[in-house]
Specification:
The structure is a homodimer.
Chain A: E1 3-12, H1 16-34, E2 37-43, H2 48-54, H3 62-66, E3 71-76, H4 84-98, E4 103-109, E5 127-133, E6 137-146, E7 154-162, H5 163-178, E8 184-189, H6 197-209, E9 216-221, H7 222-231, E10 238-241, H8 243-257, E11 264-268, E12 276-280, H9 297-310, H10 313-328, H11 342-353
Parallel strand pairs in A: 1-2, 1-3, 3-12, 5-10, 8-9, 8-10
Antiparallel strand pairs in A: 4-5, 4-11, 6-7, 11-12
The complex binds 3-isopropylmalic acid (IPM) (2 copies).
One 3-isopropylmalic acid sits at the interface of chains B and A.
């Protein structure tokens, strides 16, 4: 009997529905083609339109509803007429936090036919796995404003680092590094200037490293890390850091590797108590919404990560190989130099599944 | 009568003394050559050796002593056997804060003969002026650790943003943008995730922009900003942001433009109540200390910024032109592909002053 997975599909805003449609088509095709599993999808229309109609991004039982699924496939959130701080905190950041998806995983590599940006870099020099702490740190949500609007106003942003939170992400990162061929980990901090939470990161890295004697690891300051990514990309493999630091570095990575349009991510609860959530990195991109030209590769790659997380390694590899081949043959959207639209790229990938 | 300036020279640690020596030689030469000003230097040996001998980085009257000078030329601080969080907070960050050098200015451009890293970029596409808030934000120094070492430990890093502090750096940035030919300013925040201090940044940018109707400005999120720097560098000119955000982006900028070894910075008190401090960005670099091969261009460029700030625009331009010419003729250190050592590069620049 093929295993059946129940997936919550949350297309959200902007180009979200266009790329999630593409991902669902690919997932349907790979399930049929492999025969090893089936997928059923429920479409949850929580996003900015829902908010404008109801005053809330998530219905009151929304998180409970999500917990009934094996995984969540998420498009994008954010609308021109809602402040981003509202849409993101009420939907995306609430889900990441409440479902304790504490590991945000972002693979970045150069797909065939996509040249890295740097003159000094060959495509195979970039094959990185970013592990972003996804539940605390600079995104803990604490802080406030006092004397708002007056000349003596003070605003704070309080980054919270718990030993529990840092240890679990550090273990996850060392495990990730140990599972990859090169077994290399770089721990990013800014502990020269940030003397409390980031020094805690350094200490916990030392501690946890003892549990993983076969992982080679080093430390980098976040500012110097940008230089290393540009000048010496082949020295890096798995990379772990705080919520904000890796937010910045993983966007840079996608740009250096060729395009943010292909960047995929997984918001993972490694304990598997809650469903994990898979989302392209690109966001709602209202400037190209409705034109049918959005690059679906970020969403399709995220679906491949979902299959892998569900245990369907072969299905996941089929999708990744199809993406690689479609790129190698130039079947890409304009942002990658190709001439196809969203549906044509999707069709090309589906036709490659059988190869 | 030529104006006489009193300069505090603080070579500090690692390659600091080597590059500051080079800068002093160039400054001496340009003063002699131009005849419009004279410079006297006092050598202040406050750094990690001083700390190891006395237990403190700055003597108790150190800040008062510094206030007697017209400017400070600083090399680098940081030693392998002192935690960076100690050396930086006791010396560099104390000076920046106590002397209210609230504007950290970092020009980044491609010098002749140095190719930008990106395949898609021509040298003239990169000509950026970074303005970094240098006195508060993520470097306010607040935070702490509770239940240290226990499983339930919590550490915080508290970023502090005052309306006063944000307004003064925003005005400085708009003024800087207004003084440059393109009159373009990009304000970097992360106000979608950081809802208090960074939303304050957005609001103050709107307010201050009204005072500068001829400056064209836009807003970018710090993560997306890395992508724009890589893909679309020519769309950027002056850039302002928080202490941490611009720390990261300015290192990335230097790497994209060719080398961190040439990056210069000025820690400015725009009110001129305290002396401003000029420092290369590269740091102490103990791995190459004592070999005589450090790139002196960061320190020499910083000296040119010092002359400009003192009002010696012609002297400053002489130095910048000499740097440009030395690079164009390939008179560079190994990090820039050249074959010269520190002293030879310095001699080449001095010989170009007269051209
Ligand atoms: C949209 C934004 C809040 C989000 C983040 O910063 O986490 C995005 O940039 C990302 O990287 O997923
Ligand atoms: C050494 C360090 C504290 C410093 C900083 O982060 O300010 C350096 O990176 C810089 O950019 O001047």
């Amino acid at each position: 009997m093929p295993h059946e997975y129940k997936i919550a599909s949350m297309p959200g805003d902007g180009i979200g529905p266009e790329v999630i449609d593409a991902a669902l088509d690919v997932l349907d095709a790979v399930a049929r083609y492999s025969g090893e599993f089936t997928l059923s999808f429920d479409n949850l229309l929580w996003g900015s339109d829902f908010y404008k109609a109801t005053g809330t991004y998530l219905p009151s039982d929304g998180l409970e509803t999500l917990k009934k699924y094996d995984a969540v496939l998420f498009g994008a959130v954010g609308a021109p007429d809602v402040p981003d701080s509202v849409s993101l905190w009420e939907l995306l950041l609430t889900m990441r936090g409440s479902l304790q998806q504490y590991a945000n995983v972002r693979p970045v590599k150069c797909l065939s036919s996509i040249e890295p940006v740097s003159r000094h870099v060959r495509p195979r020099d970039i094959d990185w796995m970013f592990v972003r702490e996804n539940s605390e740190g600079e995104y803990a949500g604490q802080g406030g404003r006092t004397h708002s609007g007056f000349g003596w106003e003070v605003a704070t942003e309080v980054a919270i680092f718990t030993r529990h939170g840092v240890r679990r992400i550090m273990r996850f990162a060392f495990e990730t590094a140990a599972s990859r061929p090169r077994k290399l980990l770089t721990v990013v901090t800014k502990s020269n200037a940030q003397r409390y939470g980031l020094v805690l990161w350094d200490e916990i890295a030392e501690e946890v490293s003892k549990e993983f004697p076969d992982v080679k690891w080093d430390k980098m300051l976040v500012d110097a890390m940008t230089v290393r990514m540009v000048r010496n990309p082949q020295s890096l493999d798995t990379i772990v850091g705080t919520n904000l630091h890796i937010d910045i570095l993983s966007d840079l990575a996608a740009a250096l590797a060729g395009s943010v349009g292909i960047a995929a991510s997984a918001n993972i609860d490694p304990t598997r108590k809650s469903p994990s959530m898979f989302e392209p990195v690109h966001g709602s991109a209202f400037d190209i919404t409705g034109k049918g030209i959005a690059n679906p590769l970020g969403a399709i790659w995220s679906s491949a990560m979902m299959l892998e997380w569900l245990g369907e390694k072969q299905g996941s590899m089929l999708v990744m190989n199809a993406i690689e081949k479609a790129c190698a043959e130039g079947n890409t959207t304009g942002d990658l130099g190709g001439k196809l639209n969203t549906k044509q790229v999707t069709a090309a990938i589906i036709s490659m599944l059988a190869n």
